[in-house]
Amino acid sequence: MQNDMQYMRRALDEAVRGVGAVEPNPPVGAVLVRDGEVIGLGHHQQFGGPHAERRALADAADLGNDPAAGTLYVTLEPCCGFAGKKTPPCTEAIIEAGVSRVVVAIEDPDPNVAGRGCEQLRQAGVDVQVGCGETDARELMRAYIKLRTQRRPWVIAKWAQTADGYVALDSQGASDSELRQWISNEASRRHAHTWRGIVDGVLVGVGTVLADNPILTDRRHEATRQPTRVILDATLRTPLDCRLVTSIGEARTLVATTRQACRDRPATVDRLRSAGVEILDVTRKPVGGSRPEPAGLVEGVDVQSLLDALGERNWTRLLVEGGPTVLRSFLDPRLADELHVYVGPHEADDPRQPRFDLADVLKAGRYVETAAEDLEGDTLFILRKT
Fold it and tell me: What is the mean pLDDT of each run of 10 residues along the chain (386 residues)?
């Protein structure tokens, strides 16, 4: 029905408002309609808080509207009761309110729900329809769906490059890392910081830490949470006086390293831990003979094992901001789900500087461009894996 899609779009708009605040739960929106009028709106606002369906019902009650015989549009299957659940089931609230029809965009991929919520509603006499707005809902909840089905976070690889494919500029010998970084303009940097405020973690290699001494936080005034900073460091070279360590009070830092490094440098491990840094062993078993390193291995640090470990922690999104070596470790085996590439108008044409060119990525055929956006002179290209 045309009206169903109209109200589901409204529910999707509601759901977007929760992105970055509800993870590892999904962003969900709900719209309550009766006699062709919207009588209640709601979205999941924060992790651990009331779900969208209960918020829409509460909104209707606050406005003096009776939801009985109404239709509820919700972007994800309403939750049902299961062992360990921390919030009350939304199915019970819907049934108690007398809602007669529920339109659901997609069933919940969480195996604790996975169709049981819809079935419970049907058994109570509620008319349930699934699939309205499915494509848009899956796109909005792509990170949640991956976490629930693959037990890994959605990986976004991000870099800025010159028009001719260089990822660093020669700042006429300047040692200030800030000067070396600004290939992209302020609008691009604002956009990148918005994503830092959404993801669970931002990852770089220790080479970037040593060269640029980044802080990797969301530095917008409106920032409400900070990502965990992840350093790939196979030999524990992370300096105690780098900003990722000295700013522990502002955001957490995790060093992903190897078992051998922890054995070889126990004093370094102790000092980093004393400074508040978490040390995580993500060693992969060695490959015998002269075979090349497996895809996803960065100087002994196993990126795939790291993604598994982050999935166990219910991380929904990881932003990779490393240099060419780290980027390749995610792109070559297609471990990155999405690419954000900020292309500035400058040309470096300097063989002394590192290159990582979007044109080469496209030529390899592992990723395809899905969108492009002008950012006040820079161009943001968004790609997805094929």
Answer: 89 96 95 96 93 96 96 95 70 96 96 90 96 97 97 97 84 42 86 93 95 90 85 96 96 96 96 97 64 60 94 97 92 96 89 88 96 96 96
Structure-token match 């990881």, residue found: 318
Query: DSSP characters for 80-149?
Result: ---TT--S--HHHHHHHHT--EEEEEE---STTTTTHHHHHHHHTT-EEEE-TTHHHHHHHTHHHHHHHH
**Residue among 219, 27, 238 at smallest CA distance from 141:** 27
Q: Quote the CA–CA distance of 61 and 242 in Å, as a whole number.
A: 53
pLDDT at site 291: 45
Q: How do 201-205 and 228-232 pair as beta strands?
A: parallel
Distances 330 to 111, 157, 198, 323 between C-alpha atoms, Å: 28, 8, 20, 11
Q: What pLDDT, on a 0 to 100 scale, did the predictor assign at position 294?
A: 53
| pLDDT confidence of residue 112 | 86
In which region does residue 357 sit, left (phi positive, over 0), alpha (psi from -120 to 50) or beta (all else)? beta
User: Which pairing describes strands 71-76 and 29-34: parallel, antiparallel, or unpaired?
Assistant: antiparallel
Which pLDDT does position 285 carry in this prediction? Answer: 57
Give catalytic status of residue 53 as yes or no: yes
Query: How confident is the model at residue 169, as a pLDDT?
Result: 65
Nearest-angstrom CA–CA distance, 190 and 198: 13
- Residue 244 phi, psi (nearest 5): -70, -20
Beta strands in the chain, from DSSP E residues, in sequence order: 29-34, 37-43, 71-76, 101-106, 127-130, 154-161, 201-205, 228-232, 253-257, 278-281, 297-298, 301-302, 317-320, 338-343, 367-375, 378-385
Catalytic residue among 53, 77, 321, 338: 53
Position 183, amino acid: I
The pair of three-digit structure tokens given for residue 245, joined into one six-digit string = 């360590």
At residue 40, the 3 state secondary structure works out as strand
Burial zone of 186 (CB within 10 Å; 0-12 exposed, 13-18 middle, 19+ buried): exposed
Q: What tokens does 40 get?
A: 């209640």
Q: Are 58 and 44 in contact (CB under 8 A)?
A: no
Nearest Cα residue to 310 out of 318, 302, 320, 301 = 318
Beta-carbon contacts of residue 318 (< 8 Å; ≥ 6 apart) = 153, 154, 155, 156, 199, 200, 201, 202, 203, 230, 307, 310
